[in-house]
Amino acid sequence: MAKYKKRERQELLIEKVSTDPFLTDERLSEMFEVSIQTIRLDRLELNIPELRERIKHVAREETDKIRSLSLQEVVGEIIDIELNHHALSLFIVEEGHVFRKNQIARGHYLFAQANSLCVAVIDEPLALTKSAQIEFIKPAKLGDKVISKAVVEKMEGRIAAITVESKIEQRLVFKGRFEMYYTGEGEKNG
Amino acid sequence: MAKYKKRERQELLIEKVSTDPFLTDERLSEMFEVSIQTIRLDRLELNIPELRERIKHVAREETDKIRSLSLQEVVGEIIDIELNHHALSLFIVEEGHVFRKNQIARGHYLFAQANSLCVAVIDEPLALTKSAQIEFIKPAKLGDKVISKAVVEKMEGRIAAITVESKIEQRLVFKGRFEMYYTGEGEKNG
DNA sequence: CTGATGTTAGTACCAACTACTAAATGAGGT
DNA sequence: ACCTCATTTAGTAGTTGGTACTAACATCAG
């Protein structure tokens, strides 16, 4: 028997549609070997919108993501800043940031938070990282809220020295010392 | 006169549609105060597909992006590896990786390439970054192909020392020394 | 005034639906 | 075997946002 019972079919339908939102009722009716009307009834019962609405939804969602991605110029959200002095940012560890195995955040995200905070705190048109000494003291896990604080120690001869400390619930998880290279507007070299 | 000439209108149309792909011909015809037919003719001449096709396109494009984002587990593509000894990876600098202003790659992408290479080269179930000293010698720019080489210097007492050098066309742009913490399977501690 | 260019109007048709009515088919329970 | 309720299928009318096509205006330039 190729056909499923109502319950089974509806469960599979949810799965099918959520993995591939581009399926028409016709294609679905072929897949489950039932009539189009049955599929429509199922969608009605399950509150699954029609193809076009599903696509529209995906498209909208994703255009939003693009916006937030280009905002993600800075990793983490800056919550306090006094230019050339100090800055604070918050970074929440999400699914994309962790090793699946153990839910520990990849080191380079903590680094990225610190690094982009350093770029942000310097009030000059160009600021590039020159060097860094960093330490990962404790792993950050999925869901953790990491607060990073950057303090500019000195700025001299186009080089700024910045120390960064990142904490989760007051506990130090990361620290680093960054040297940033910066220049004013007209200036440029290699 | 609220109405535009054909040329102007068509240019604006392209802009409108590309910034908001969700506009129907009807809405557009209202915006430009012309008939729907005129809009349709314009789209025909400009090869702009209809609303539904535009949305579908956006949706598809973005579902692809999600896939490639989750693939971005490792930054850069590993091109050679001998576990616990050395590894090589290639990272091509793309639009998302650079400052828009000057097309220079954000430092944390170079770091991420090096860091994930260090994670990859260690043949143990768990490998976390403990510390790093890094130097950014020359900026990497949009389109650059960065080859990163990690060499394991020693592995002792759950700590591995690894040196990384990243080059663009034989020229050193980044180097670093990483300390990685690792453990075998059953083991675990905070 | 005449043509070319541009703009509108209108028709037939399409995909992928919704909303609704009605008939056919099960599958169970007694 | 018969009745019943759930399920499935069929079919119609109407919707949105179009394509494709024909035909009738407008407008302006030479």
Automatic annotation (TrEMBL), chains A, B:
It comes from Salinicoccus cyprini. It comes from the Bacteria. InterPro entries: HotDog_dom_sf, Thioestr_dom, Transcription_factor_FapR, WH-like_DNA-bd_sf. One of its GO terms (biological process) is fatty acid biosynthetic process. The keyword DNA-binding applies. The gene is fapR. Transmembrane segments: none annotated. Transcriptional factor involved in regulation of membrane lipid biosynthesis by repressing genes involved in fatty acid and phospholipid metabolism. Belongs to the FapR family. The keyword Transferase does not apply. This is Transcription factor FapR. Residues 105-171 form the Thioesterase domain. GO terms for molecular function: DNA binding; DNA-binding transcription factor activity. Keywords: DNA-binding, Fatty acid biosynthesis, Fatty acid metabolism, Lipid biosynthesis, Lipid metabolism, Repressor, Transcription, Transcription regulation. Pfam families: 4HBT (PF03061).
